[in-house]
Structure formats: C-alpha cells, structure tokens
Amino acid sequence: MSKLAPVYGIRGYRVETPQQLETALTGAFALNEPVFLDITVESIADRLPPVFSWLKKAGVDPEAVGVQAAL
Hints:
elongated; 2 strands
C-alpha cells in the first residue's frame, strides 16, 4: 500500500518493526505534510473476540442468537 502514496503526491513508509516505526514517525513529523504509513501488525484472525461472554453479561442468550462459546 505504501507504494500507492506517490500516486497521490505524498510520501509513504512501510513499517514492519518497532525500529522502522520510530524512523517512519520521525520522518513523517519532520515533513509537516500528509504521509501514508503502511504498518503491519500481528494478525488476530485466529483468535475470536469474547462475544459469547459479552452477550451473557448483557443478559442475552448467546446460543439463541447463534453465537457459540469458543473452545
């Protein structure tokens, strides 16, 4: 995505490590203009949000609305 930034006339940084983030932020703030930061993060797709417990706490029967507890 950071390679699209020049198409819009702005600088883009791809960030994959904490060290790169610090460098990118320093550079972005020094420019004092719009900058695109493409920051990769750890995927949480393999973890489910605790929707079951949220519904139980709200007084809703999770199974009645089609939500199953995570194993």
